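Please fill in the sequence for the structure shown.

STRUCTURE ENCODING:
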């Protein structure tokens, strides 16, 4: 698989990475063995980037990755990113904390679960309004100087926040949902990342399964509390969105490629600094996703994709009301 540069320091990672939220039970039950199989397949496919977070399964995703690295000795084959900044109180209510002590304490816990001495990329998962982003950058620079992280980024921030952060120190990556079904980054974030030499790491690049040959149904959604509460997968909207994405499946079939591969190829064609990180519990699906990195789309291909799934075709917001809390809106 070809590589792309992530950030200012010339770090090379695979064009497509793995979003390891699927190593917890977020989208449905899984096992360590299934996650290990994904990581084995990733090595075979030349996928080097793994993205996780301390809150994915309350540390389970990091623990699974740590066990795999310990058993295989594959640490040097992967670029590992994790996140901190989301926390819950004793009643289970979600809060955001960007205080220096909190970020370092959570990072130390992540390093222990992962079984490594340094994380390659450390994100602030959500902004905390009590701490200006310039102050948070200084905290992250301190963690970098201490050797605990090699680079840092932010998740779900606005272009203006990126500009403020980059004025203090180069920001390696900004993570945001981006796909044919979610085009918000085209309204300023993708362009801002290009200006500042920052990678745009695209999570949910297949629209949480809508951009695949086997889109989720009501039974699959029942296994995930998040999917049950997401407007795009509500009982009224799910059949509408499957119908809206059917033309893309037909186009992919005409082209002789998996729909997920076509979705990946579209994202990679948007800009050289875009890095999709799909998550999956299926080795077969991972191979379909990886096939997108080998595709080169022509201008005619891109026009046909836009005709099949025009911007604005999806029913429902990408997040429900509570899910939007902590995400910086900019348009």
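FILLED IN BY: designer on duty
SEQUENCE:
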């Amino acid at each position: 698989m070809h590589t792309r540069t992530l950030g200012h320091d010339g770090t090379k990672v695979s064009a497509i990475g793995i979003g390891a939220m699927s190593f917890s039970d977020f989208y449905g039950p899984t096992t360590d063995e299934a996650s290990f199989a994904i990581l084995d397949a990733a090595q075979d496919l030349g996928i080097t980037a793994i993205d996780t977070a301390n809150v994915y399964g309350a540390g389970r995703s990091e623990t699974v990755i740590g066990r795999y690295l310990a058993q295989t000795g594959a640490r040097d084959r992967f670029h590992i990113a994790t996140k901190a900044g989301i926390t819950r109180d004793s009643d289970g209510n979600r809060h955001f904390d960007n205080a220096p002590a909190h970020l370092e304490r959570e990072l130390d816990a992540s390093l222990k679960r992962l079984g490594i001495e340094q994380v390659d990329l450390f994100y602030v998962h959500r902004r905390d309004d009590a701490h200006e982003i310039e102050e948070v950058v200084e905290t992250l620079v301190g963690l970098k100087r201490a050797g605990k992280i090699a680079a840092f980024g932010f998740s779900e921030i606005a272009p203006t926040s990126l500009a403020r952060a980059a004025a203090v120190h180069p920001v390696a990556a900004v993570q945001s949902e981006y796909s044919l079904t979610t085009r918000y980054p085209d309204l300023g974030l993708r362009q801002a990342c290009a200006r500042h030499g920052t990678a745009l790491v695209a999570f949910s690049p297949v629209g949480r399964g809508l951009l695949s040959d086997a889109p989720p149904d009501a039974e699959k959604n029942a296994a995930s509390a998040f999917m049950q509460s997401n407007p795009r997968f509500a009982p009224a909207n799910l059949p509408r969105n499957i119908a809206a994405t059917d033309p893309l499946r037909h186009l992919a079939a005409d082209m002789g490629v998996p729909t997920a591969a076509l979705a990946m190829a579209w994202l990679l064609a948007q800009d050289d600094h875009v890095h999709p990180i799909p998550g999956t519990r299926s080795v077969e699906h991972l191979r379909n996703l990886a096939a997108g990195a080998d595709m080169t789309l022509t201008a005619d291909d891109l026009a046909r994709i836009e005709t099949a799934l025009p911007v604005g075709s999806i029913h429902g917001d990408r997040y429900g009301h509570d899910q939007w809390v902590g995400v910086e809106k900019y348009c």
